[in-house]
Inverse folding.
């Protein structure tokens, strides 16, 4: 069902010097599924991460934050099939036990392991099952397992999400490879479901953190499937610093800007992939809001449209029911909002011009753009120069089916 | 499909002295349907009204506000099948032309007629068709047409919504009868889709206005189906002052309080009826948020749960997937939110106690309460004494079906 998204091939995913990966099957939710992913970071790897702002954040998020702030990270342990969220103190103990199990196998400190979980909320994490497969996973660590890792972190995703790019810095080849998962409970708040991006570029830690934040603002923090922020969102950017380029100490240099752009591109691809594979999605919808007083108010209008079940069901039906877009703009809460300057477009078809129905609009024109799998909605507020953009998908029968039957 | 809601009988709806009603068929969207409702208010009737806060409010809302502020209202003209919204200056002219047509037939001023429309957004209102049936409607005005009026204002509603109550004031019998419509695009903001409540009680105009506002806060302003605020919401409370009771000049009297309570009861019934008949609804969900610092933050948490597509689809599936409730509470944006005091209940089953999973909880217990057609979710925030409550419904296949096929 995913919209204009095809599965990556193993060949298209490039190894990143200093990163090794492996998967194993612990039978967490379904027998036989590769549901445990172990990622090894070479010594000297710099790590930046952002986590969900949901107040009920999951146990692994709490532990990962603690561990990341206390020691250089050497291993990421990710399981799918169980979110270890809403599990209280027992869940915290479970997350730490899993980290200790990796530490025992790899002979490192527990705090150098970051745990991540995704799946059903509110069920105890089967620590024994996960610990049991760690020696096998450890023995199979390889630079070439990016595709398997992308598949291993999937839950309701129908397609693995991964991308590699290469660029030159100081004449050295730099590789960036990232993976992500997510399909429902998607409205990231300073983070996404789960995403891991690695590069071998040599970057100062503070610059790495800034680069991640910059990339987030143009990728994972601009998507929504259903408006529900997950308890387990996390995004990790790793730099193994093994490419041989001179250390990047500022973004505002030619090298810094080039690398930032490449990292943002990978994040944007991975974020859009989550929406393209949104639960039940049949349409990929880009919402542009222009001419606002601030980026914040543009985002507010964009998300109001993106979260409207009526806009989303009309998109599913390829119905140019633009009254629903107009109603969403109208209820988006802008202060002193003068409608007489507002214009609204679906694709390049103008439906409202200066607050009035556009005269040359016809249902046929609207129908033609709504029938496409990629729909762009543009709102011009006529009250400033600010701009923002978000991406979402439609609401189909399958969204209800997937979420009504998720635990059965 | 409506949840525990049956159609009112004509006998159960009591005439209100001074109010006459009639319906007619103008063929606005479908031939043969009674889609025009005319309500006559006797001279001396006091009228209070609230309207949508959607910035893109419909033409009839703009005209009704103007007319109501300039002259005592004598006629309400309501059509279903076309919202006359997003229609620009042409729509304003159409709404005024309809008022003039009523004025011509009834020999009153145009400004004493209030227009209301509900239905598809963005299509021209067929003024000629509506004007043509007004003489017939006028000739059939009767005190006994409340049920026909309730049916005439329906759009995607499956059941007419109406209620009468009687009470005694000063030994005089007072009657209150109200009707409402609405099923989708429901998240009233200081008003509802369309509701008309009439009483023959004698009330001072300022008191009437306050009584309406008080009732709204406990009825129409506490419901949501899909979070989409309509462009056409309006609620009108009329007092014909013909019951013979002494004029009510303050709410804080025995008579004032009794009448307020009765009006609020009728509004609450009509508001809940809209949710019970929400598009595709199979469950009626009450959300209580207690122990908050303010009523506003309680409402914020309640609406976050009520709008979560994941909570709504789980409710449809009778799935006690309480992790989704917890995730919604967690993302509701409370400042300095300490989870360690939070408790969550479905029905009387505790799922989270002081921030930890409740030990005696079992899936069977959760399943039993979720299987009921009426579900109550209670969240105790443990940070104050404030409280609020909202009502919503589930998200089913039929919600998608109704909204994907609305215009076909």
């Amino acid at each position: 069902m995913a919209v204009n998204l095809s599965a990556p091939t193993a060949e298209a995913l490039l190894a990143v010097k200093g990163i090794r990966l492996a998967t194993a099957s612990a039978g967490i939710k379904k027998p036989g599924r590769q549901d445990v992913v172990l990622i090894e970071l070479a010594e000297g790897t710099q790590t930046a991460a952002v986590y969900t702002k949901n107040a009920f954040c999951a146990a692994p998020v709490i532990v990962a934050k603690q561990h990341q702030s206390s020691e250089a990270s050497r291993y990421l342990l990710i399981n799918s099939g169980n979110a270890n969220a809403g599990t209280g103190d027992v869940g915290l103990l479970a997350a730490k036990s899993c980290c200790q199990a990796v530490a025992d196998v790899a002979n490192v400190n527990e705090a150098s392991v970051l745990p991540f979980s995704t799946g059903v909320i509110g069920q105890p994490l089967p620590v024994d099952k996960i610990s049991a497969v760690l020696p096998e996973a450890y023995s199979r660590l390889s630079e070439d397992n990016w595709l398997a890792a992308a598949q291993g972190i999937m839950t309701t995703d129908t397609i693995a999400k991964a991308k590699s790019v290469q660029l030159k810095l100081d004449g050295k080849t730099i590789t960036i490879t990232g993976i992500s998962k997510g399909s429902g409970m998607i409205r990231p708040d300073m983070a996404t479901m789960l995403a891991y991006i690695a590069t071998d570029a040599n970057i100062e830690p503070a610059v790495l953190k800034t680069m991640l934040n910059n990339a987030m603002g143009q990728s994972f923090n601009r998507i929504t499937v259903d408006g529900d922020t997950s308890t387990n969102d996390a995004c990790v950017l790793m730099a193994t610093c093994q490419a041989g380029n001179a250390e990047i100490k500022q973004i505002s240099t030619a090298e810094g800007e080039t690398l930032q752009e490449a990292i943002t591109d990978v994040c944007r691809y991975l974020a859009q992939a989550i929406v393209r594979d949104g639960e039940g999605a049949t349409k990929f919808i880009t919402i542009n809001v222009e001419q606002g007083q601030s980026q914040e108010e543009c985002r507010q209008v964009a998300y109001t449209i993106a979260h409207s079940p009526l806009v989303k069901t009309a998109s599913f039906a390829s119905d140019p029911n633009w009254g629903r877009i107009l109603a969403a703009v109208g209820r988006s809460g802008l202060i002193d909002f003068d409608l007489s300057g507002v214009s609204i477009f679906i694709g390049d078809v103008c439906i409202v011009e200066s607050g009035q129905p556009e005269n040359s609009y016809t249902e046929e024109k609207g129908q033609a753009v709504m029938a496409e799998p990629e729909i762009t909605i543009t709102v011009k507020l006529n009250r400033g120069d600010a701009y923002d953009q978000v991406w979402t998908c439609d609401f189909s029968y399958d969204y209800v089916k997937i979420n009504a039957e998720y635990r059965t």
